[in-house]
Write a structure and sequence with these properties.
Elements (H helix, E strand, L loop, with lengths): L6 H5 L5 E6 L4 H17 L4 E6 L4 H6 L7 E6 L2 E7 L4 H11 L7
Parallel strand pairs: 1-2
Antiparallel strand pairs: 1-3, 3-4
Helix pairs in contact: 2-4
Length: 107
């Protein structure tokens, strides 16, 4: 069973975290969903992709100055290392995440 983690614990971990600040009523956010799923599938445990609904998490959205959705922020060890609002292509996200993802481990 997976343990619930606070947002702070999540972004401060060793695994890079791409946060998708989104809203259920946002057309571009809905269009990004399959792109994010595809990218997440390619990276597995090397990167976490997390959706944050700005309507349900207003304080968190305000803390990170989210004024438009979708807004993406990539965190690594608690530091925001990349941020962009609007749609992003799968190929761009893959290049960005490959640069910061945990190395592939062979078991």
């Amino acid at each position: 069973m997976e343990q619930k983690m606070s947002f702070s614990e999540l972004i401060n971990g060793e695994t890079p975290v791409l946060v998708d600040f989104m809203a259920t009523w946002c057309g571009p956010c809905i269009a990004m969903a399959p792109i994010l799923e595809e990218v997440a599938g390619k990276f597995g445990e090397r990167v976490r992709i997390v959706k944050v609904d700005v309507d349900q998490n207003r304080a968190l959205a305000a803390h990170f100055n989210i004024y438009g959705v979708p807004t993406f922020i990539l965190f690594k060890r608690g530091e925001a290392i990349w941020r962009q609002s609007g749609m992003v292509s799968a190929s761009f996200l893959e290049e960005l995440l490959e640069e910061h993802a945990a190395p592939v481990t062979s078991e």
